[in-house]
Amino acid sequence: MVLIVSLPDASEDPCFGPFPISTSVAISAKIVTIIPESENRLPSKSRSVVAIYPGSFDPITNGHLDLIERGSRLFDRLIVSVLRNETKAPPLFSASERMEMLREVLQDYPNVEVDSFAGLLVDYAAARSATVLLRGIRAISDYEYELQMALMNRRLQPKLETVFLLPNEAYSFISSRLVKEVFALGGNISPLVPASVEARLQRRLSKPKRKGA
């Protein structure tokens, strides 16, 4: 299994020593490879590499956009796919609304496609001819969960690789849940989400003023 971690703002890593900013570290068993992001694409065979970035995106944040922008440079085609999970509590925005939000902010990325899926991610990846799953890791707690999921996906589909990207430091604390909580309490979320997403949150969550208030 290949684990690729992008370090956008780090100039030195305690495990691997100093290396240039904006590099990717690929770890496969005992092999460590430094892949400069200036090469734009991960080393691949002659066929194009299709990656899937799955998530709830309820709503999309600037942290998501950071990973999508960098992922669009690493892969020939990136499919940003909204999870339709009927077993969880109803989302704030429907799947179609989340897809609309994504398309609004991703229209300048020609190799990025917006889609949705339900069921096993590995089955969806096979249906879309994807060989890579793109995931973000904000903290150690994220890594533990994501590694478990990556190993399970690997067991279900051995040819499907998982790529982890570390977020830009400015977005390392952002989550969709936190954005909604801050907004509901009257906080400023303009640095955390695209303007079009903030406008949708205003329409969805703003409480109407009572008469005579």
Strand and helix map with partners:
Blueprint lengths: L1 E6 L4 E2 L3 E2 L4 E6 L2 E6 L13 E6 L6 H13 L2 E7 L11 H11 L6 E6 L3 H7 L4 E5 L3 H17 L4 E5 L10 H9 L10 H11 L8
Parallel strand pairs: 1-10, 6-7, 6-9, 7-8, 9-10
Antiparallel strand pairs: 1-4, 2-3, 4-5
Coarse morphology:
globular
Secondary structure class reads: alpha/beta
What's the arrangement of strands in the largest beta sheet? 5-4-1-10-9-6-7-8
CATH architecture: 3-Layer(aba) Sandwich
Question: Keywords, please?
Answer:
single chain; 213 residues; alpha/beta; Rossmann fold; eight-stranded mixed sheet; two-stranded antiparallel sheet; globular
What does this structure look like?
It is a single chain. The protein is of the alpha/beta class and 213 residues long. 32% of the residues lie in helices and 24% in strands. The chain has an eight-stranded mixed β-sheet with strand order 5-4-1-10-9-6-7-8, with helices on both faces. Strands 2-3 form a two-stranded antiparallel sheet. Strand 7, helix 2 (95-105) and strand 8 form a beta-alpha-beta unit. The longest helix has 17 residues, at 140-156. Residues 5-36 have low confidence and may be disordered.
